[in-house]
Amino acid sequence: MDLLKALMDSASGGATEQIGRQFGLDSSQTESVMAKLVPALAAGVQNNTQSAEGLAGLAGALKSGGHQRYLDEPESLADSGAVSDGNNILGHILGSKDVSRQLAAGAATETGVSADVIKKMLPLIAGVLMGGLSKQTGGGTQLEQEAGGGLLGSLLGAAGGADLGDLAGMVGKFLK
User: Fold this and answer.
1) Quick check: 127 and 70 in contact, CB under 8 A?
2) Helices 27-48 + 115-136 axis angle, to 10
3) How high is the mean pLDDT of the chain?
4) How many CB atoms lie within 10 A of CB 169?
5) CA nearest 87: which of 61, 122, 139?
6) Which residues are CB-contacts of 20 (< 8 A; sequence separation ≥ 6)?
7) Taking phi first (over 0 means left), then psi (-120 to 50 degrees means alpha), and beta for anything else, what does residue 140 get?
8) pLDDT confidence of residue 116
9) pLDDT, tens digit, for every residue of 61-105?
10) How does 84-115 read in b/e, with b if 16+ C-beta sit within 10 Å?
11) CB-CB contact of 119 with 104 (8 Å)
12) CA neighbor of 125 nearest in space, from 93, 95, 96, 147
């Protein structure tokens, strides 16, 4: 299961289109940015859920956060609450604005989209990632039932086919 593809295809790509439209990007630019950020954010989620406490926190967020709306109703990404929600998600996943800035700078170098635009996109992409995880795990229920590890690893490991060990190491160095 390829989480990145699922996010981009969900609701016929509506979330991807909505994010691109909000920032004046064409679909290939938006997809390129998402292809760089989703695996890094997924690595942050995986790093954050190495403890039972972190995994329980993720399951709770997936169950109560209502993040699926970003995929089911992509226009909700234009609401001011989506940025606030996404910033909260980033705080949990990455722990630091410095990590967000590093991710934006790296993605900017590789995609040609400005780091300032990518920094503004990050909260929305984090919300979409959580929406995808919520859909894939039945609102977090499957994580609770299967004690999460294997299922979460298979979902996050499919985030764009990236090597999550390398990504987790990159994100992890900022989280310590």
Assistant:
1) yes
2) 60
3) 77
4) 12
5) 122
6) 26, 27, 29, 30
7) left
8) 96
9) 888 888 889 988 999 999 989 999 999 999 888 888 888 999 999
10) ebbeebbebbbbeeebbbbbbebbbeebebeb
11) yes
12) 93
Inter-axis angle of helices 80-94 and 97-111, to 10 degrees? 100
| Strand, coil or helix: 128 | helix
Give CA torsion, residues 79, 86, 39, 135, to 10 deg: -70
Q: What count of Cα atoms within 13 Å lies in the side-chain half-sphere of residue 171? A: 29
Does 11 score more than 80 pLDDT? no
Please, are residues 12 and 168 in contact by the beta-carbon 8 Å criterion? no
pTM for the model stands at 0.79
The pair of three-digit structure tokens given for residue 158, joined into one six-digit string: 């499919």
Amino acid (one-letter) located at 39:
P
Distance CA 105, CA 81 (A): 25
CA–CA separation, 46 and 80 (whole Å): 27
